[in-house]
Design a protein that fits this description.
The structure is a single chain. About 30% of the residues lie in helices and about 25% in strands. The strands form two sheets. A five-stranded antiparallel beta sheet has the order 1-2-3-6-7, with helices on both faces. The longest helix is centred in the last third of the chain and has 23 residues. The protein has five helices and seven strands; from the N terminus they run ααβββββββααα. The N and C termini lie far apart (about 35 Å). It is of the alpha+beta class. It is globular and about 45 Å long. It binds nickel (II) ion. Nickel (II) ion binds next to helix 3.
Length: about 190
């Protein structure tokens, strides 16, 4: 196995985070360069304890993202998500309802805020081998997918925060919101199953 390279993560204000990421052709996806890049993207996400990482967050504006949640210290209340790599993904809401998700982002240092997300959505696209993906995502997991797919359209969670009084540092989240949100997270998982 080749050594992976940890990539630099763009921070809010970098123009690449606001770029519409470009689709990846099936031929390009098969290339060694893109496959190595995907390995590096996954390694960088894991190293930074991210729940997901989009390619434009590491200065490559391509429609590729990785998502994984397993005992994440940044998000202890999040249900687990097996490693999922999505290429050219599209998300379609399957409900008109939304729930308030407390989000953070590796590209937005030390800030969290409440973002309305659909608790049930369909995600289509390709996996890293170019095979079609067609999955339903639910609850908090659906929120995680919507956050990552937003990155590919140049959108950050801060754009979607409606109640700006919900903005807080990670310390303030732990002190004032985590217990409540963990309880609400359990209810969301009970109702929506994810
Ligand atoms: Ni993010």
């Amino acid at each position: 196995m080749c050594a992976v390279t940890l990539l630099k993560i763009a921070q809010i204000g970098e123009p690449v985070l606001r770029q519409l990421a470009a689709p990846v052709s099936p031929e390009a996806l098969k290339s060694e360069a893109i496959q190595t890049f995907i390995d590096d993207l996954i390694a960088t996400m894991r190293d930074a304890n991210g729940a997901g990482l989009a390619a434009n967050q590491v200065f490559r504006p391509l429609r590729i993202c990785a998502i994984e949640v397993s005992d994440n210290p940044r998000y202890p209340y999040k249900p687990k998500i097996p490693l999922t790599v999505l290429v050219n993904p599209v998300v379609t809401p399957l409900t008109g309802m939304t729930f308030d998700n407390y989000e953070g982002c590796l590209s937005v240092p030390n800030l969290r805020g409440l973002v309305p997300r659909y608790p049930h959505a369909r995600v289509t696209g390709l996996d890293r081998e170019g095979q079609p993906v067609d999955m339903e995502v639910k609850g908090l997991t659906a929120g995680t997918f919507q956050h990552e797919l937003d990155h590919l359209d140049g959108r950050l969670f801060v754009d979607r925060v409606i109640d700006r009084a919900s903005f807080c540092t990670w310390d303030a989240f732990a002190r004032y919101h985590q217990a409540d949100f963990a309880e609400r997270a359990r209810e969301i998982v009970d109702v929506w199953g994810g």
